[in-house]
Amino acid sequence: MAKFHWLFLIVFLPYHGKAAKISPSKSRLSLQWKTFNCASNPLHVSRHKCIILDNDKSLITVEVDYLQAISQLNATFKLFLPRQPFKEYHKIIDLNVDVCQFSKGLYGHKFIGVIVKSLGKKASSQLKCPRPKGLYSYPNISIADNLPGFLPTTDFKVEISFLSPDSMLNTSLSGMLYDPAKTSGK
Ligand SMILES: *[C@@H]1O[C@H](CO)[C@@H](O)[C@H](O)[C@H]1NC(C)=O
Ligand SMILES: *[C@@H]1O[C@H](CO)[C@@H](O)[C@H](O)[C@H]1NC(C)=O
Ligand SMILES: *[C@@H]1O[C@H](CO)[C@@H](O)[C@H](O)[C@H]1NC(C)=O
Q1: How far apart are CA 16 and CA 39, in angstroms?
Q2: Does the Cβ of 179 fall within 6 Å of ligand 3?
Q3: Quick one: which of 180, 7, 166 has its CA closest to 82?
């Protein structure tokens, strides 16, 4: 159960913007993505790219070409962790957030704050609404740099769905947090 202590912190601490103490230098664990899949709605998105970088599997790149301007965008975030003894995945976090509020620094949740911070400054500025149609690119997203330092090693899965207001893009990711000092990964 100690394993879930950090989740308790992440789930129940509200995000306090700049006051949050997430120091990249304190991250001890490395993150490696294993799979990244996306499905888009052809009525909203002409093409998309969801890739894990070949030469650095801690990084992902997302590109979405919107066919229509975005005036409203919500997202659901789900985090799943394996639970002993059978390691079947359980949903730990399930959030619905208003993405249009992100540019105002209103993430609603610490977990989301980590993700938005990982997009980088330029990408974060692309989260304003309304937002013209066209190609949006979020290169080299590094979640690991923004994670707190007290996390346990674990496999995990994340599902993020975007709604505007009908389904626009579904993404699912799997990865692991590991200690680079102990092992080079399984
Ligand atoms: C996303 O997933 C939901 C729920 O499974 C589904 O209803 C929706 O059609 C999916 N959207 C796309 C764009 O694949
Ligand atoms: C979008 O998310 C916000 C925050 O959770 C919620 O209040 C709002 O009702 C959502 N809007 C839609 C269309 O789901
Ligand atoms: C992303 O990372 C790759 C590999 O580390 C690098 O070659 C590329 O220039 C980076 N792209 C951007 C836009 O930062």
Answers
A1: 32
A2: no
A3: 7
